[in-house]
Amino acid sequence: MQKNKYWLICVLLIVVSVSCDANRVFDEYKSVSNEWDKDNKVEFKLTPPDSINEYNLFVNLRNTEDYKYSNLFLIVELNYPNGKVLKDTLEYTMTNPDGTFLGTGFTDVKENKLWYKGYKEPFVFDESGEYTVNIQHAMRQNGSVDGIDKLEGITDVGFRIEQNLN
Q1: Phi/psi at 12 (5° precision)
Q2: Does CATH place domain 24-163 in 1.25.40?
Q3: Which DSSP string do the residues of 36-55 spell out, in sequence order?
Q4: Which of 58, 61, 65, 166 registers the highest number of CB atoms within 10 A of its CB?
Q5: Is the pTM of this model over 0.85?
Q6: In angstroms, rounded to a whole number, what is the distance separating the alpha carbons of residues 81 and 39?
């Protein structure tokens, strides 16, 4: 009887952990070197499941304490299958006013889930086929026109699509 009890608890924990992320459609990370080069575009190729339903799109980042800034500028390019391109320059807050990093994680690596599309109005992949998402940083020092060549502290860049459940 004791073995059955532990086995049932294990099964329940697995079911709960898997079902917590049931709205995930696509979720992939790519590592960047110790320094993210400003010319290094992180590319994701994806084929959405349909061209009818609504989705939320996120840029995911993992950063360490080596990240020296309170914000982050990114250029995100969404290439549609038929040639249409959406290109956005986005700014994200990375720290609280006291300098502590936002994001989740118990170690020195913090994970950030940053809105890309779907927060104002749901996003629909209205063309069928393969989409490409390119993400690159666009960080600059205050008062400088030139970008930061090598951005320290970002370890992984990800892209995530979730079903819009609203």
Answers
A1: -65, -40
A2: no
A3: EETT--EEEEE--S-SSSEE
A4: 61
A5: no
A6: 24
Q: Which residue has the tokens 């996003």?
A: 123
CA dihedral 49, 52, 56, 59 (to 10 degrees): 50
Which region holds residue 128: left if phi is over 0, alpha if psi is between -120 and 50, else beta? Answer: beta
Q: Supply φ then ψ for residue 13, to 5 degrees.
A: -65, -40
- Coil, helix or strand for 19? helix
Of the candidates 81, 97, 64, the residue with the CA atom closest to the CA atom of residue 133: 81
Residue 116's H or E segment, with its range, is strand 110-117
Say if residues 67 and 94 touch (Cβ distance below 8 Å): yes
Q: Which of 73, 62, 71 has its CA nearest to residue 112?
A: 62
CA distances from 107 to 2, 3, 19, 65 (A): 35, 34, 25, 10
Tokens 């069928």 appear where? 128
Q: Is the separation of the CB atoms in 25 and 49 below 8 Å? A: yes
Delimit the domains of the chain by residue range: 24-163
Q: Rounded mean pLDDT of the chain? A: 88
pLDDT tens digits, 21-46: 778 899 999 999 879 999 999 999 99
